Amino acid sequence: MPKPRIMFYHDGRHPHIYRYEPPMQKEEYQACIDELVGTPVEAIMFCLGEGRTVLHDTKVGELLGHNVDKWDHLVFHRAYQNAKGLIEEGHDPLRIVCDRAHEKGLLLYPTLLVQNFGPETASVRCSNFRLDNPHLEIRARGDLHPDLPWIDGLDFKHREVQGERFALIEETLDEYPVDGFELQLNNYPRYFHPDEVQAGIGVMTDWIGRVHEAVKWSGADRELVIRVPTNLEDALSIGLDLEAWVNRGIVDVLVGEPFSAPHRVDPNTDFRPLAAIAKGTACRCSAAIHSHVDSDRLAEAPISMVRATACNYWEQGIDGLYLAQWFPHWPYQADFYERLREIPYPDIMEAKDKYYYIPTENARPNDPWAATQLPIEMEVNRPVTAKFIVSDDLPRWDKVGRVHEVLLRVGIAGTTELDRIRFSLNGTELPENILRKINQMYRMSGPRNRSGPTYWFIFRLDPAHWPPQGENELEVTLLERDPDVLGAVALRDVELELKYLMGRNFHRDYVDPDLGPHSYGVS
């Protein structure tokens, strides 16, 4: 069996069973496969449901909604209607996607959300196993703060928990023509009481070994894929000893993503520790690449941002890309397929437009685990720094006349026109003669929301100030503060946009516009 380099996570719900009016037709259900045919995607990672319940004809698990008499959520009711209707017609939803994927030359790996939050938060999706067994939850001892978001998850020290999860995996491997199995361990990633994590490390390693044995027993070519935090220490802190798994040969692919999967694109994610432990072993390392930006200006990443992120990831020696949470693009149009076409090929993307940025807080409630480098509050004469990674070799492409423009955008929140601010890139102060300021202290509206910097500082960098390949450091210093205002000043946004020509002296679009379609005036 070929080893896929490009995997696509399909959650089986949001762009799919939630959308179609019941009764859902077999042809409609298999559309989730058809939509990816002819793209670089080699394997579809198909989610079995929200984790506690599933959406196929299981005999050992529980179908979403089987225990609900009256529904307080219309969309979940629709998912139940569609799944139940297909099953009653003799069309098992999971078998539909397995058969269609193989018919079209794609691999299919079911994905299990191993952990999920407890019954109070989504009762109509919850299983009887969870409702009837509160003593199996992490909070069962009663000594944890009730506001912690993960305490009602399953505690894997209990054999009943391990067995319930394993039975669903084993049934899927035995009953369906799958090409492997994926464990999503980075979703609400807590598996033990905080006082029992150390003892739980061995427990979880043994359970992973049991799952891997079942995968290989069901088919020697089948693979176990596990999605995990990129940081080895973060993983170990919740009971996941990734290095031990690799050394024992009980995982075939490690898919890394930031801790607790904030589901936002980040070109600066570090996959090198994962790649290092996989190097020279039978295990491969893949990088989860996201598409969602969710800033005040952008919902989804434009193709230039996807390129920048993918190139940074390939540069780290990974074995593949895992396209995670791309379903907000649905229904998929030409720009979605354009993003997909290039990402397996860093050499093709090398001299094409890139858009690097550092994720920052937005107007939505913060994920308690989604740490962001920005914003950073500033005080007078105390420099703050932000780091970002660039994979482009600008001097190389400048020699052949391909570099069109290099823009560094810095967004400062809470500043006024009377503040004085100094900017330095990699130890060199950026001169004012390459600076343009844009006043956005007040906006009637914005493409997404009205939050954002009060001023943008846009530097059209000349070759003397271009960022080199690798890590770059921006230093920002508030030299003088407007004496008549209160409130904090903060470094909020850092973006680097590189624009290329197709060849020496080529035009840019029809009239060579200075402003790209995604800049919203910030250029």
- Strand proportion: 15-25%
Structural class determined from secondary elements = alpha/beta
Say how many strands there are.
18
Number of domains: 2
Query: How many angstroms separate the termini?
Result: 48 Å
Main-sheet strand order equals: 1-2-3-4-5-6-7-8
Main sheet makeup:
8 strands, parallel, barrel
The average pLDDT is: 93
Round the Cα radius of gyration to an integer and report it. Answer: 25 Å
Tertiary shape: globular
Q: What fold name goes in the CATH topology slot of the largest domain?
A: TIM Barrel
Oligomer category: single chain
Q: Portion of residues in helices? A: 25-40%
Number of helices: 15
Give the SSE map.
Blueprint: E1 6-10, H1 13-17, H2 26-29, H3 31-34, E2 43-47, H4 74-88, H5 93-103, E3 107-113, H6 128-132, H7 159-175, E4 180-184, H8 197-218, E5 223-229, H9 232-237, H10 242-248, E6 253-257, H11 272-278, E7 284-289, H12 303-314, E8 320-323, H13 334-342, H14 346-349, E9 354-357, E10 376-378, E11 384-390, H15 394-399, E12 403-413, E13 420-425, E14 428-429, E15 435-439, E16 455-460, E17 470-480, E18 489-500
